[in-house]
Each structure stands twice: as structure tokens, then as C-alpha cells.
Amino acid sequence: MKRFCTTFMIVIAILTVFSCAGDRPPVILEPEQEWLVAEVEFKKKKYAKAVELYKTFLNHHRGHANASEAAFKIGECYYKQEDYVLAISRFEYFLKTFPFSKLADEAQYKIGLSHWEQKHAQDYDQTDIEKALQAFEQLVNTYPSSRWKADSILKISYCREILARKLYKAGMFYQRYDKYDSAIKYFDNLIDNYKDTNIGWVNWARYRKGQCLYFLGNKNKGDEQLKLAYSISNDAKLKREIMGFIKEME
Fold it and tell me: For the segment 213-234, what is each residue's pLDDT rounded down to a tens digit?
């Protein structure tokens, strides 16, 4: 209790010095004092102030044992303020400057989360999902023992599901406007590269590709896609659609 009171009084005294400094030259404190002040603001969730203090700490004591943690916590402050663009920038800076830090895997994870949090509901732009996927894959490959690995694998699965859906809807867009060659490119991308996602997307893509091939006059290859989709699908609705389309084309 006595130690806590002493520490608290030191922090109060330091903050008083800062608040009364006015136009006087900046006060350079001992490393432990500057670190303590920054940590207090961080724990009080005063993240904007904490960022300033961590930056000051780094400017004054770049070689200190807590320098890497200060650099990490600047990114963490931005993340907690939901300023994901700045968070990504600071976490990337942290990884370049302190690549062997014990916090490196968490920084990589937070880069992925920052992109994830910026994902758009619109199907036409999933840039942040693609970047999140890359970040989570980087974590899994670079830090195989990380505590964040399991959630990163789960996020990878979610990202790939979203991207598979994007490809399917893009293919549907072009098919709707009779741009069958362009539609087939999207369906092929889905079929070839996203077999690990919900099999429903792959089978529906095969069905739509089969339709496009029919409309392009390539009945034999169209039949191959339709029969394959029908044979491996457990989706009753898809099977009905395929049979209905075949009868319509007879």
C-alpha cells in the first residue's frame, strides 16, 4: 500500500510539472518516470494523451528496454480509438523496427484485425478483406506458435468465404448482362482457388459456368459443368435449378 501511494504521488507530481510547464523548455524526465506517466494514461484509456507520451518516451529513450513496448502501444492506442489506418501504419513500423520483439506476433495479428474492422459490406470492394487475409496468413506462417494463430486461422476462413461470395456475385453481374466470357473468368477463379470454402459457392459457380457455356454455344462443355455440379451437390434447390435449365435448353 505504501509503495502504491508513493508511486501515485510521483505520477501526480510529474503530471503537475507537465501541466505547469507553459512556454518553458520541455522537461526531460528519467526513463522510468516517463514510462510510468505514459502507462497511467494508457490504463485510464486516455489514448490520445498516451500516444503523445509514448512518442516522447521513444524520442528521449530509444535504446531503453521498454522502447519496443512503447512503439507497440502507440499502435494499440490508435487501434483502441478505432483509427485503423494509423494503427496499421504504427504496427507495420513496429515490426520493421523491432522484428524480434515478443510482441511481434500480436502486432501482426492487430494489422489483420485493423483491416478486418474496415471491411465493407459492398461486394464491389473487398480490398481490406484481401489485406486482412494476407496479414492473418502471414501470422500463421511466420509465428506458428503464436497464441493468436487459432483465431487467425478462423479469420482466414471467414475472409475466403467473403471473397468467394464476391467472385460469385461478380460473375453473376456479367452473366446478367450477357458478358459470358467475363463471367466465366470469375466463376473459374472461384472454382479453382476457393475449393476450401463453402462447397455451395463452388457448385453454384459450376452451374452458372455451365449456363454461360450453353449461351456461348458450347453445349458439351456446358453439360459437363452442369452434370458435375448436380452429382456432387447436396443442395436440393441447386439440383432443381439445374434440371429446370436442362429441360429449358432441350
Answer: 999 999 999 999 999 999 999 8
pLDDT in tens, 153-163: 999 999 999 99
Residue 4 falls within a domain, yes or no? Answer: yes
Sign of the Cα pseudo-torsion (57, 62, 65, 69, in order): positive
Number of other residues whose CB lies within 10 A of the CB of residue 10: 14
- All 3 cell numbers of residue 29? 524526465
Give domain status of residue 112, yes or no. no
Rounded to 5 degrees, what angle do the CA atoms 135, 139, 142 make?
125
Task: Report the first-to-last Cα separation within the chain, whole angstroms.
Answer: 87
The three cell numbers locating residue 135: 496479414
Name the domain count of the chain: 1
CA 194 remoteness from chain centre: 18
Is residue 29 a contact partner of residue 41, using CB atoms and an 8 Å limit?
Answer: no
Instruction: Record the cell numbers describing residue 177, joined without a space.
Output: 448482362
Residue 176 maps to a domain: no
Say whether pLDDT at 35 is over 70. Answer: yes
Cβ 89 vs Cβ 115: under 8 Å: no
Is residue 132, in this structure, part of any structural domain at all?
no
